[in-house]
């Protein structure tokens, strides 16, 4: 493999359809038997709602798993009452609002909500309690081993053969991006050039004084791959750690970082330049700046330059820090910093 290809080797695979099949296979049909005060059972009938994205990436031999899903399961129960064949029946749902790599990385337990959609009675309440205390907890092991199953099934499809070459010592070769905003800001200072320059004060309707902020960094990735990371809503969460809404058409609106950054697309030069109308939540109402994202392909890296014009003067430092922490450090959290050993 050439040094260029080895340096930039990046493959991804969408595993969302497989994920729904995995949970359907392992969760639907799960049953818990009741013996007191009456005999009966509660069971999972179906997955009534599945939403989210699941993706594997191979960056120089290191697997990156990104997933964030929401599931709703339908359950039903039946108690024998000795009076009729039907007995007493109940129905309801179990909702898992966040099935994500973050929960797994933090070692937290998956949260769920159990509800009953049928009429409530003393008998049906006992079934609801059985679902909450027994049936739902019995499903959790399948959530915890999901990532291992995901990797075992799909790692080979992104060119990962199980070798630990290039992975951190003691690592499994499986990684998810960490929140690098605080830790990497200081370590990346030398590698990331930042500068600010006062721009002429613009005569806004509110007489708002503004300035310009520039942030740039060399990243170990081809310009076309970096462009896709910055503009593909399916891949943006890999570095923002939050869902993204973005359509690459002039005039279309976008939303990043859980709605904390909003705006619209002004112009597009594919793989080279993106100009956006951009605002942060703490800026004055209805005030937007202009963010110009420029990608310049070099011999062994791509220079990313972020130029934000129209920044309220009192927001200069905070805006510079936000671009550096949430854009640059977020991307470097994927192992794109020059000189990274992966």
UniProtKB/TrEMBL annotation:
GO terms for cellular component: cytosol. Residues 12-156 form the Activator of Hsp90 ATPase AHSA1-like N-terminal domain. SUPFAM superfamilies: Activator of Hsp90 ATPase, Aha1, Bet v1-like. InterPro entries: Aha1, AHSA1-like_N, ASHA1/2-like_C, START-like_dom_sf. Belongs to the AHA1 family. Residues 174-199 have a biased composition (Low complexity). It comes from Meira miltonrushii. This is Activator of Hsp90 ATPase AHSA1-like N-terminal domain-containing protein. Residues 157-214 are annotated as: Disordered. The lineage of its organism: Eukaryota, Fungi, Dikarya, Basidiomycota, Ustilaginomycotina. SMART domains: Aha1_N. GO terms for molecular function: ATPase activator activity; protein-folding chaperone binding. One of its GO terms (biological process) is protein folding.
């Amino acid at each position: 493999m050439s040094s260029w290809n080895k340096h930039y080797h990046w493959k991804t695979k969408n595993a969302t359809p497989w994920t729904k099949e995995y949970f359907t296979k392992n969760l639907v049909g799960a049953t818990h038997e009741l013996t007191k005060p009456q005999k009966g059972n509660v069971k999972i009938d179906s997955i009534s709602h599945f939403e989210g994205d699941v993706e594997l990436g191979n960056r120089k031999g290191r697997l990156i798993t990104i997933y964030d899903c929401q599931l709703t399961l339908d359950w039903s129960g039946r108690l024998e009452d000795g009076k009729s064949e039907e007995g007493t029946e109940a129905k309801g749902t179990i909702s898992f609002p966040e099935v994500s790599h973050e929960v797994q990385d933090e070692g937290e337990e998956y949260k769920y909500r159990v509800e009953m959609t049928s009429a409530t009675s003393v008998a049906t309440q006992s079934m609801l309690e059985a679902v909450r205390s027994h049936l739902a907890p019995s499903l959790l092991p399948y959530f915890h081993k999901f990532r291992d199953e995901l990797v075992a099934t799909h790692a080979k499809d992104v060119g990962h053969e199980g070798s630990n070459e290039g992975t951190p010592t003691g690592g499994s070769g499986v990684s998810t991006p960490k929140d690098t905003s605080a830790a990497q800001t200081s370590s990346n200072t030398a590698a990331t050039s930042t500068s600010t320059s006062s721009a002429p004060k613009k005569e806004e309707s509110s007489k708002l004084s503004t300035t310009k902020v520039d942030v740039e960094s060399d990243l170990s990735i081809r310009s076309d791959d970096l462009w896709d990371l910055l503009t593909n809503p399916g891949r943006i969460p890999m570095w923002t750690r939050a869902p993204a809404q973005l359509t690459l058409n002039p005039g279309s609106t976008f939303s990043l970082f859980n709605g904390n950054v909003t705006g619209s697309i002004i112009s597009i030069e594919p793989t080279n330049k993106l100009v956006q109308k951009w605002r942060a939540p703490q800026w004055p109402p209805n005030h937007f700046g202009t963010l110009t994202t420029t990608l310049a392909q070099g011999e062994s890296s791509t220079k990313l330059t972020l130029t934000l014009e129209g920044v309220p003067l009192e927001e200069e430092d905070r805006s510079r820090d936000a671009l550096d922490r949430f854009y640059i450090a977020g991307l470097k959290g994927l192992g794109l910093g020059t000189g990274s050993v992966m």
